[in-house]
Amino acid sequence: MILALNCGSQSIKYKIFNSDFKVLREKVVIFKNQRNYDQILIKTLNELKSFNGLIKVVGHRVVHGGPKFRNPTEVTPLILKELRRYNKLAPLHNPFNLLGISVASKIFPGTKQVAVFDTGFYSGLPEEASIYPLPESIRKKYGFQRFGFHGISHKHASERAGGEKIISCHLGGGSSITAIKNGKAIDTSMGFTPLEGLTMMSRCGDLDPGIVLELARTLSPEKTEAILNHESGLKGICGLTDMKEILKKADEKDKKAILALKIFIYRIQKYIGAYYAILGGCDTLVFTGAIGAGSLKIRQLICGGLAILNKPNKVKILTVRPNEELAIAEEVKKYEI
Question: Name one GO cellular component term (predicted).
Fold first, then answer.
């Protein structure tokens, strides 16, 4: 059996699969605050003690593994220590991902703990898409490069959707778009951290670096990071981080909600147009994530303003329900033996 554990900042999700990837048990725990996260995680996994000895491997989603960790990796105490170095690059995710590994290794002693990295799908990005135009000495010293994120989700969605030239849109609390050609990612909207790219719920997305410098000079690096990660994006525009609430407010003619929605849609359309160009066309546009697959209204707003989807050859527009747990299980299957 395989336990796929997905510990995020706002949820704990797990699924137990048999060798044929049939789900034997699953659960989702949603958080309104993180004060009792450790205790809830321990309680949740303790409920699975009856599977102890039957579960051969626990697969974990890990957002950022830096340049060293891209492929699925069996986690030892030493590797767990190394992975903690990258928490600062994905502060909304990595600490919770690694907490899941730490707790699971104690509750299921002797069971293999395997990290599956969001960045893995992008390990083959072409240089023109992965290298930042900074001095080479700086890039090498600090490891600056475009890693890409949501790779587990994009890979899963694109494989289910099919096509040679795919634009995959993962839209949720965090959002990103990936251009995929013949099964390989050739560009993606997120970069060195999950801050780059689309306007997100509380993350800014693409921003003039001069603004970051000015904020850091005026406030502090710590306050600047908090603003960019937690107070920006749609929250910064209209004060809301729930897309259902934003859509409701927009229907009620709330000006700030309407503006937030326009910015969200516009950034997505801009990236789709850019990726249509670099792919040399597109045969499949696939939406996944809680918003991407869950909101027909958002998909209509995005696609309704994109004439390129109908010319010269009509693009297939598909939705794939997010299932990162299945994708993780497929990646760690070889460790079950």
Answer: cytoplasm
174 is in an annotated binding site: yes
Domain boundaries, the chain: 2-117, 163-319
C-alpha span between 101 and 7 (Å, rounded): 9
Residue 60's nearest CA partner among 71, 68, 72 is: 72
pLDDT digits 0-9 by tens, 300-313 = 999 998 988 876 77
Res. 52: pLDDT tops 80: yes
CB atoms inside a 10 Å sphere around CB 205: 23
Beta-carbon neighbour count of residue 29 at 10 Å?
15
* Residue 182, marked binder: no
CATH class of 2-117: alpha beta
Indicate the burial class of 181 (C-beta count within 10 angstroms; 0-12, 13-18, 19 or more). Answer: middle
Catalytic residues: 118
- Structure tokens of 106? 């104690």
Helix or strand holding residue 159 (H, E)? helix 151-161
| CATH architecture type of domain 163-319 | 2-Layer Sandwich (3.30)
Hey, do 2-117 and 163-319 end up sharing a CATH topology, with the first three levels equal? yes
Closest C-alpha to 331, from 65, 196, 152: 152
Q: Is a pLDDT exceeding 90 seen at residue 249?
A: yes
pLDDT digits (tens, 9 = 90+) for 11-33: 899 999 998 999 999 999 987 76
Binding residue per annotation — 6? yes
292 is in an annotated binding site: no
